[in-house]
Design goal:
Layout lengths: L7 H7 L6 E3 L2 E10 L4 H4 L5 H10 L11 E11 L3 E5 L20 H7 L7 E5 L5 H4 L15 E5 H6 L5 H12 L3 E4 L3 E4 L2 E5 L8 E5 L11 E3 L8 H4 L11 H18 L2 E3 L7 E2 L21 H9 L5 H4 L9
Parallel strand pairs: 4-5, 5-6, 6-7, 11-12
Antiparallel strand pairs: 1-2, 2-3, 3-4, 8-9, 9-10, 10-11, 12-13
Length: 330
């Protein structure tokens, strides 16, 4: 899908041969690279010239010829004790998957996992940030069987409820996972143990969620990472979180999620782990992006939802207390 940079590093990335990027216990897994089906300025029609200039500095790899938008399709693996892994999102999938109509299939997630020495059987949880085709493609194999046989696939109940009955992701992923008992629907914020918290970030889709990964060893021992899903799909939304994406379901809710999550990341000194920027890990304050005059004071406040999460993370989880666990990570 489109031309790629001629440098050796970009060529290796395009071929899927680049070594996995890591920060702490989070490993970025590049599934695919390509050019979006419409120019960037059509996808973000209200972005200003200053926003585009900042975006080019934050993520220069996204700037393609003739105003085209070059992007990555990335999943993340989070190490857990005992050699187990949590996978966040399942990529674009194989050539016959539902993303084939617009995304650069086939993806390379199985090969990327092999290079990172992660076996599918070692994945005990797959967090689906949302149910778009480019985030669910490797949920199952060509025969319709779950690609991760020991995993629970965790998704927000609101996301499943909002999925159109005719959406190909329902047939491709939701129905097979429900049939095997591996689809686990949750509601709202959930602490999963091992320093992992699901944060509802609706707007891009009704039940979109992100993942907060606390630094191994607790605060003061490295940095937290926020796996953002599609809260930001382009650096222009980091330059100004008020910039809407033409294909998000609820622009007002999506903007609020960007503002709140950015404030949270800045307040905790966390890195952003992004699905579609051409950089896997991004500083949330890069290029002055956190200080946008249209962002509604993003760095100065946290919404109640995120403030509650920040204040409660050092307390015992429900699993620690022996109570009912909304999502059990085996």
């Amino acid at each position: 899908m489109g031309d790629h940079d001629g440098s050796a590093a970009a060529a290796a990335k395009a071929a899927g041969a680049a070594a996995p990027e890591r920060y702490g216990r989070v490993t970025a897994l590049l599934d695919a690279t390509g050019t979006f089906f419409e120019p960037a300025r059509l996808a973000f029609p209200d972005a200003r010239a200053a926003d585009w200039a900042r975006a080019a500095r934050i993520d220069p790899g996204a700037v393609g010829p003739g105003g085209s938008w070059r992007l990555d399709f990335r999943c993340f693996a989070i190490a857990r004790p005992g050699g187990r892994w949590v996978l966040v999102d399942a990529g674009v999938g194989p050539a016959d998957g539902p993303a084939a109509g617009w995304a650069p299939v086939p993806g390379r997630l199985p090969e990327a996992m092999a290079r990172a020495r992660i076996a599918p059987a070692e994945v005990d949880t797959v967090v689906l940030t949302h149910l778009h085709e480019d985030h669910t493609g490797w949920s199952v194999d060509a025969a319709g069987e779950p690609l991760f046989p020991a995993a629970r696939y965790v998704v927000q109940r609101a996301e499943v409820a909002a999925l159109d009955p005719a959406d190909p992701v329902r047939r491709w992923a939701v129905d097979p996972l429900r049939a095997t008992g591996q689809l686990h629907e949750v509601e709202g914020r959930h602490r999963l143990g091992d320093g992992l918290t699901l944060l509802p970030t609706p707007g891009h889709t009704p039940g979109h969620q992100s993942v907060l990964v606390a630094a191994a060893g607790g605060r003061g021992q490295g940095r937290d990472v926020v796996v953002t899903g599609d809260v930001w799909v382009h650096a222009v939304q980091l330059a100004d979180p008020a910039v809407a994406y033409a294909h998000e379901r609820d622009p007002a809710a999506a903007r609020a999620s960007r503002v709140d999550l950015l404030a949270r990341a800045v307040g905790r000194g966390a890195l952003l782990a992004t699905a579609h920027l051409t950089r896997a890990f991004v500083e949330p304050t890069a290029d002055g992006s956190a200080g946008s005059d249209r962002a509604g004071g993003a760095v100065e406040r946290l919404s109640g939802e995120f403030q509650e999460a920040a204040e409660g993370e050092d307390e015992p989880s429900e699993a620690d207390e022996g109570g009912e666990v909304p999502v059990e990570l085996r």
